[in-house]
């Protein structure tokens, strides 16, 4: 082989972009923005990344509207996330505002309320034996982290505790709002 020179060729950017997208999509569905970000980290030129992503969208491998709907359904069903937390996650994943709004609109208030009731029941059952105020605070904090508004959570908490303790005892429970706490401080940033 004397005289022949073997050259290591750099793979062309389009092949790199396709390989990145296919590898990531094999693991889990991704948004277009997530794929573009992965390509940018590997220094794929923006125009090449855009062309590859356009082709993937044309054949249905990348569909932000479907991805948003799937994420809303799965995160609500599996993790119990409420609209606010779901909207934030969609934004972080690069989903356009109008696509996020459409996906969130599919989450009906009755389903969200039923999930809040299930989460409240689980949290309050796990804290049985503690002071009622501690139980209420912990439940408000837990559901606040999942994006539920404190007013709805408190309403569900009162209903649960009324069935557990009796209505007359629950009415005497001061809420964190009664003590002058800021509603946003309860639900977090």
Number of domains: 3
Shape: elongated
Q: Element order, helices and strands?
A: HHHHHHHHHHH
Low-confidence stretches: 178-189
Class by helix and strand content? mainly alpha
Over the alpha carbons, how many angstroms does the gyration radius reach?
Answer: 24 Å
Strand fraction? under 5%
Helix content: 55-70%
Question: N-to-C terminal Cα separation, in Å?
Answer: 67 Å
Number of strands: 0
Count, helices: 11
Task: Give an account of the 3D structure.
The chain is an all-alpha fold. The chain folds into 3 domains: 13-62; 63-107, Arc Repressor Mutant, subunit A (Orthogonal Bundle); 109-187. Helix content is 69%, strand content 0%. It is built from 11 helices and no strands. The model is unreliable at 178-189 (pLDDT under 50).
Main traits of this protein?
189 residues; Arc Repressor Mutant, subunit A; 11 helices; mainly alpha
Q: Strands, helices and their partners?
A:
Elements: H1 13-27, H2 32-41, H3 46-58, H4 64-79, H5 83-92, H6 97-105, H7 109-126, H8 132-145, H9 150-165, H10 167-170, H11 183-187
Short synopsis of the structure:
69% of the residues lie in helices and 0% in strands. The protein has 189 residues and is mainly α.
